[in-house]
Write a structure and sequence with these properties.
By secondary structure, the protein is α/β, with parallel strands linked by helices. It is built from six helices and five strands, in the order βαβαααβαβαβ. It has helices at residues 17-32, 71-74, 79-93, 99-108, 117-123, 140-147, and strands at 7-12, 36-41, 112-116, 136-138, 151-154.
Length: 155
């Protein structure tokens, strides 16, 4: 018997542009379907909600098999910035919002956004470092409580 999904909790642990968007797109799709959605930003995923860093995320070009580019080329100076700019142009052409707009859109749609307390402590991130759309910094236990009864998605 099929049971409808009513809640998803998405763990965002990557801080690269191509590592962030899948989770945000999943959260946006969930909200568009009327599904409760929460995003839990941990480790390098904290960069996505950090006011000092979210506008500076880049595409990871070294060791990224999806780019079909030799690691040596990906490590050359300027390649990451060039590939990031190309990706941003493709997303703009496809009407995919930039990261700041996407986070605001998710917040407006009712998606809960939370920072991981342990990761914040590890990296010295405070509440003041996070975008206003973040509801709170919570522990893993609090995240599990929030996610109870729903699906957990790792991106």
């Amino acid at each position: 018997m099929d049971t409808a999904i009513t809640k998803v909790s998405i763990i965002v642990s990557k801080g690269s542009l191509e590592g962030v968007y899948p989770g945000l797109i999943m959260a946006n799709g969930a909200r568009a379907e009327g599904i409760e959605a929460n995003c839990f930003f941990t480790f390098f995923g904290l960069d996505v909600i950090n006011v000092h860093r979210y506008e500076h995320l880049k595409v990871a070009t070294v060791g990224n098999p999806g780019l079909h580019m030799a690691t040596l080329i990906g490590g050359l100076p300027g390649v990451s910035s060039l590939v990031t700019r190309m990706m941003e142009q493709k997303m703009e052409h496809s009407d995919i919002p930039n990261l700041g707009e996407f986070l605001a859109l998710l917040s407006d749609a009712g998606c809960g956004m939370y920072g991981c307390r342990a990761s914040c402590e590890l990296f010295g991130v405070t509440r003041e470092d996070l975008i206003p759309e973040v509801k709170d910094i919570i522990s893993v236990g609090e995240f599990y409580h929030l996610a109870a009864g729903g699906e957990i998605i790792f991106t």
